[in-house]
Design brief:
Rossmann fold
């Protein structure tokens, strides 16, 4: 008997000032549904959220490969701006999109997707203060709480975390040969 491999979602957080509930709520929803979650950042050790949440990061963003994961979530928060121009992250996002794997970004993180070039001509949402950045990148901005366009789901902030995670989970469950 061959056991099915566990489904694993990669979550990228800023080293400092990621948004606690945008990390915590999606992780809980995914794990409850049977998915494993691996967290990475720009360094390893203990990352700190805007509201004080401490998260152990065991792997550096530079050390991950898209083929080892079934989906990607970019967590928002004020520290997310430090990831806007991260070329390694841009390449990783592009690989997930090419491999037709679900990609999610919440709060300010959809700006990273726009800068990676994967949102041009797509409908997406973002924290309202960054809406202009999406529009400048050729994104069809929506003020909705959660927007799904193809295999990309975006959420506009902490209050959207639950609905964002549910939309992302729905994409995960529709892709791949089996369920977790």
């Amino acid at each position: 008997m061959v056991l099915a491999a566990a489904k694993i979602v990669l979550m990228v957080i800023a080293w400092r000032d990621f948004r606690d509930e945008e990390y915590r709520i999606p992780r809980q929803i995914l794990e409850k549904a049977g998915y494993q979650v691996e967290v990475v950042s720009t360094q390893t050790g203990i990352a700190t959220g805007m509201l004080g949440l401490k998260v152990s990061v065991g792997k550096n963003l530079n050390d991950v490969k898209s083929q080892n994961f079934d989906g990607l979530i970019l967590v928002g928060g004020s520290g997310t701006t430090s990831l806007y121009e991260n070329k390694k992250l841009h390449l990783l996002i592009q690989e997930f999109v090419r491999q037709k794997k679900p990609v999610g970004a919440i709060c300010l993180a959809p700006v990273i997707l726009a800068k990676a070039g994967v949102l041009q001509g797509k409908k997406a949402t973002v924290y309202v203060s960054a809406a202009e950045l999406l529009k400048q990148a050729g994104v069809i901005y929506s003020a909705e709480e959660v927007v799904t366009d193809g295999l990309i789901v975006t959420g506009n902030g902490p209050s959207a975390a639950g609905n964002f995670a549910t939309a992302f989970l729905n994409l995960l469950q529709r892709t791949g040969p089996d369920k977790p």
